[in-house]
């Protein structure tokens, strides 16, 4: 009898240990809390309603918005652009550059413009459904936001949708792809999210508040524009109508 009870207790302990083990539905870890550490400041066109910002090599590309003021431009960071193309009649949004090709999307016009990455000359236009906000490229695909909680993956040649993931956070705006992560400005806030593109899980929340002085804030709009500086682990960030760009690192917010 004692042997039977001992065996039963051991079996119960084993089963209990299995039940306590984390399962596939276990809660994911909380997002890492980060802040910006400013390394340097660069001038930025205060008339640029920034919608997209991205490096390709040492060249910084920027897309701007507002009807009648939309453009795409490229040149050294902190200097006047060496190449610029206007986008008349449309409201420009996010941009991305893949080798010889640059893409620029539009807000509510349902049009994406394919450009020559060197001259920014327009090659062709393709249409899409819904709004366009942010754009970046990752692992042979485009990643696009539309102001909702969803990221849509698109073919880099046809621009056709190939899939999507829900992040669970609304107002995803300008995007920057870095490795398997997507960094997203959250519209009307000073926050940037780091997102696992495979699952949509938010792995980091970055507090980018306090970059502008109260005087600069008076004529500036929201934070929007994040570009990874190649080979450094650093980023260049700015906003709509901001007079400055900031070269930063994302560090623990302790």
From TrEMBL:
GO terms for molecular function: glutaminyl-peptide cyclotransferase activity. Residues 1-26 form the signal peptide. Keywords: Signal, Transferase. The keyword Signal applies. PROSITE patterns: PROKAR_LIPOPROTEIN. The keyword Ribonucleoprotein does not apply. Pfam families: Glu_cyclase_2 (PF05096). This is Glutamine cyclotransferase. It comes from Amycolatopsis azurea DSM 43854. The lineage of its organism: Bacteria, Bacillati, Actinomycetota, Actinomycetes, Pseudonocardiales.
């Amino acid at each position: 009898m004692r042997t039977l009870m001992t065996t039963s207790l051991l079996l119960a302990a084993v089963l209990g240990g299995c039940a306590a083990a984390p399962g596939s539905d276990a809660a994911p870890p909380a997002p890492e809390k980060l802040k910006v550490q400013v390394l340097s400041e660069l001038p930025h066109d205060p008339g640029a309603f920034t919608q997209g910002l991205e490096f390709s090599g040492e060249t910084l590309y920027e897309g701007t918005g507002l009807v009648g003021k939309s453009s795409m431009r490229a040149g050294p960071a902190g200097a006047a652009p060496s190449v610029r193309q206007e986008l008349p009649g449309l409201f420009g949004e996010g941009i991305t550059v893949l080798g010889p090709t640059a893409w620029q999307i539009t807000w509510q016009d349902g049009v994406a413009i394919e450009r020559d990455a060197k001259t920014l000359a327009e090659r062709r236009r393709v249409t899409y459904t819904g709004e366009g906000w942010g754009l970046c490229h990752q692992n042979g695909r485009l990643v696009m936001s539309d102001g909702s909680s969803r990221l849509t993956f698109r073919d880099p040649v046809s621009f056709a949708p190939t899939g999507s993931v829900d992040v669970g956070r609304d107002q995803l705006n300008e995007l920057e792809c870095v490795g398997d992560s997507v960094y997203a400005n959250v519209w009307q806030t000073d926050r940037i999210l780091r997102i696992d593109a495979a699952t949509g899980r938010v792995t980091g929340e970055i507090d980018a508040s306090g970059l502008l002085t109260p005087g600069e804030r008076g004529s500036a709009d929201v934070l929007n524009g994040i570009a990874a500086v190649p080979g450094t682990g650093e980023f260049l960030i700015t906003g709509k109508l901001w007079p400055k760009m900031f070269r930063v690192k994302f560090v623990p917010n302790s």
